[in-house]
């Protein structure tokens, strides 16, 4: 058992979120401690730097009202830990795992450190099987696979919060396996209004019963944001690998996490890298994203759906750029589609799920699902090229077949990508085939004759609106 050490008169200075102590005890980097001020409030912190004479502590709570002469430091003798046990689901916590819903703390069956390593590659299994999100453009064209990490690249002002809440409410496994499904939702640096809307949406839909929520508010110290996803993932790992559940972790917004990382790095005096972010941001993000997956011999899986907003809509910005290197694809939201009234504004062409082949087809969704996804993508890509040509020569300058592709592109965005309500896989599947019926059979080159006969009643003529 760790031995707590109580120290008085150890604090020598306070600068923003950092507290400086005389090194009066033996301690290590990453160790948790509490600092109690004259107001009696205990503030959680962790050691971030140490030398022969000084200890630098990063407080995870406000330093307002904290004095130097009257502060009492309690060294815990262990890293930041989280109490885990039955009763995680249906609860709402703050960014460091404390109840925010007025309930009692979770009964501790085990205690685990929140900054554990990623899954050992030697024990990691290949992600497989399908998670239904209710979003047609994801389920059919960029399917989410159990154990995958698939980020959503959004931008300021786009409805990613609404999409995150909708997926958290509706995501499920297909068939009888859905009984072991759970969601961990982490809001990082969200406003009070957004946090309350997330909680209300989950409660009203009944999804909170199989969900654990971690809500870190924008008004709380930025250092706390660095631990919020780690507390959420620690809870998710317990649900997945101890209780045997299939867990979907929704993290929003990872851009707030990266901004907090830059702010804390600057306060420590670290040398900045590209656009002021620390040079270790890639490895830091990897310690979060690589906790997704499944372990051979364990019954559960952990799937991540992180959401980030691209600063200035720039997909080459360091945050989406580094995220793309670590994760297995991306879902890209588009401002132009949002202006057209399309929700969710998913731009299918730059979106990608690299593990889609591991989760669709016979035994998972439908044997003809892969062919449908390929044909829809190819047809929409052709429609995008025809739009460029139409902007030059006009609609009247197009061939009759090109006009069909132009109409297909409009209907695909307005009827398939756009959806007022979440759809089941079967509804999205049937709608996809209905889209392809707009084209003559000769244009459906990625489908077999048997697939066309089973699902499509295509046009037999080659003409458009002459």
Automatic annotation (TrEMBL):
Residues 359-453 form the ATP synthase A/B type C-terminal domain. Keywords: ATP synthesis, ATP-binding, Hydrogen ion transport, Ion transport, Nucleotide-binding, Translocase, Transport. Residues 11-74 form the ATPase F1/V1/A1 complex alpha/beta subunit N-terminal domain. InterPro entries: ATP-synt_VA_C, ATPase_a/bsu_AS, ATPase_F1/V1/A1_a/bsu_N, ATPase_F1/V1/A1_a/bsu_nucl-bd, P-loop_NTPase, V-ATPase_su_B/beta. Transmembrane segments: none annotated. CDD domains: ATP-synt_V_A-type_beta_N, V_A-ATPase_B. It comes from the Bacteria. Residues 134-353 form the ATPase F1/V1/A1 complex alpha/beta subunit nucleotide-binding domain. NCBIfam families: PRK04196.1 (NF003235). Belongs to the ATPase alpha/beta chains family. PANTHER family: V-TYPE PROTON ATPASE SUBUNIT B (PTHR43389:SF4). Produces ATP from ADP in the presence of a proton gradient across the membrane. The V-type beta chain is a regulatory subunit. This is V-type ATP synthase beta chain. It comes from Mesobacterium hydrothermale.
């Amino acid at each position: 058992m760790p031995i707590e050490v109580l120290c008085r008169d150890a604090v020598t200075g306070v600068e923003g979120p950092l507290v400086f102590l005389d090194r009066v005890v033996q301690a290590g980097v990453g160790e948790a401690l509490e600092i109690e001020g004259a107001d009696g409030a205990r503030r959680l912190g962790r050691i971030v730097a140490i030398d022969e004479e000084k200890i630098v502590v990063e407080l995870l709570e406000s330093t307002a009202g904290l004095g130097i002469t009257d502060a009492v430091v309690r060294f815990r003798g262990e890293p930041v830990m989280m109490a885990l046990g039955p009763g995680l689901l249906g609860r709402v916590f703050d960014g460091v795992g404390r109840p925010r819903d007025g309930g009692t703390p979770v009964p501790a069956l085990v205690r685990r450190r929140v900054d554990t390593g990623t899954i050992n590659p030697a024990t990691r299994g290949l992600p497989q099987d399908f998670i239904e999100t209710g979003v047609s453009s994801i389920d059919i064209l960029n399917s989410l696979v159990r154990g995958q990490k698939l980020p959503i690249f959004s931008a300021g002002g786009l409805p990613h919060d609404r999409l995150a809440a909708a997926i958290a409410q509706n995501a499920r496994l297909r068939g009888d396996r859905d009984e072991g499904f759970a969601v961990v939702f982490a809001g990082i640096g969200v406003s009070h209004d957004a946090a309350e809307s997330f909680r209300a949406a989950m409660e009203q839909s009944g999804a909170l019963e199989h969900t654990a929520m971690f809500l870190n508010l924008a008004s709380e110290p930025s250092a706390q944001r660095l631990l919020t996803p780690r507390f959420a993932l620690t809870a998710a790992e317990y649900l997945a690998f101890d209780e045997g559940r299939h867990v979907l972790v929704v993290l929003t917004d990872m851009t707030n996490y990266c901004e907090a990382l830059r702010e804390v790095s600057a306060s420590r005096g670290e040398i900045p890298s590209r656009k002021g972010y620390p040079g270790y941001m890639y490895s830091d993000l990897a310690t979060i994203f690589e906790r997704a997956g499944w372990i051979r011999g364990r019954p559960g899986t952990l799937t991540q759906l992180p959401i980030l907003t691209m600063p200035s809509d720039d997909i080459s910005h360091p945050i989406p750029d580094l995220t793309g290197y670590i994760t297995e694809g991306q879902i890209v939201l588009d401002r132009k589609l949002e202006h057209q009234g399309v929700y969710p504004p998913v731009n299918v062409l730059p979106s990608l799920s690299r593990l889609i082949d591991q989760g669709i087809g016979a035994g998972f969704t439908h044997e003809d699902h892969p062919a449908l996804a390929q044909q829809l993508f190819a047809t929409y890509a052709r429609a995008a090229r025809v739009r460029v040509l139409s902007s030059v020569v006009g609609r009247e300058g197009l061939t009759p077949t090109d006009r069909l592709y132009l109409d297909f592109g409009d209907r695909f965005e307005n009827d398939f990508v756009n959806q007022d309500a979440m759809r089941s896989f079967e509804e999205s599947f049937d709608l996809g085939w209905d889209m392809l019926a707009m084209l003559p059979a000769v244009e459906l080159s990625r489908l077999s004759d048997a697939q066309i006969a089973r699902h499509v009643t295509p046009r037999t003529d080659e003409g458009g609106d002459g």
